[in-house]
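Need tokens for this chain, all 326 residues.
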Amino acid sequence: MAEALIVVATACGPPPRCPGCRVRARRVHSSYTRSLAERPLSGRKLLVRLRVRRFFRDRSQCRRRTFVEQVSGLSERYRRSSLGLKTWLRQVAVELGGRAGERLCRRTHLVAGRTRLLELLEPPTVPERSPRVLGVDEFAFRKGRTYGTLLVDVEAGRVVDVLPDRTSETFATWLRKHPGAEIICRDRATAYTRAIKEAAPNTTEVADRWHLLQNLAAAVEKTCHQHRACLRKRADEETAAIPEAPPLMPLPLHQLPRTQIIERTRHCHADVHKLVAAGWTVSAIARRLISTARPSGGSATPTSTSSWPPPTNAARQECWSRSSRT
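Here are the structure tokens for all 326 residues:
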């Protein structure tokens, strides 16, 4: 199966109009082939090789000398994808954003990175009048450094505008340019309160749902803290009134299967305790166990760590001097 389908096409319509002066062209300057990425077809990439014409612009008043024709519904200037693919990618960017949209495009055989998806997003059209119920809250462009203000139509559930900062002057200026708000749902920031009293003093200010729940949780916590002695006394009374439960039947301890590694670990543990009881230091025990655990000669299995009786002081000194030289 081919990885991509290539469609070769040629623009052969009537001469187009100049995008500057809107006068129809008469002479062909040249032609060239441009590649346009299209929407996938049957799970495979689709590429359109479109041959277009470049026309002269003979009118002296127009600053253009030549221009290229565009196929309606397929191509536009400076773009290497079709208008249909552009619409698809814009919908993906609106619904999923950058990184998630990029992962979806990769699965559907669309070549689009997160930067390209975000570039397709267009700012919403700001209405001339403010919505009846306006929601105001701050958000972080970069947490701890740069903040902005988000304005939302609470009844319609859509973003109205985004302000570059969270100062009262910027918000007051926006309220003067966009009158009509009757209720403003805001957080507890003093900057927004000052802007509302300055630019829209007749509006009703209410707290949003999140801050109401936060205030309720803080009030409950404060009340419980003030009456913690009464609550503890009540809890002790209820605990004393509960009858004692019958003793639980002891469950048998879980026995691990006796494998080779478990037996080796038990022997090593016993050897360590024997060396400690014999007066060995921790470093000497570590060197002893490491040296006895290595295979000797051509043997592929480690030797036993149980070597008794313990070495003499001369043997320990020789082992210490040999390890310090290495």
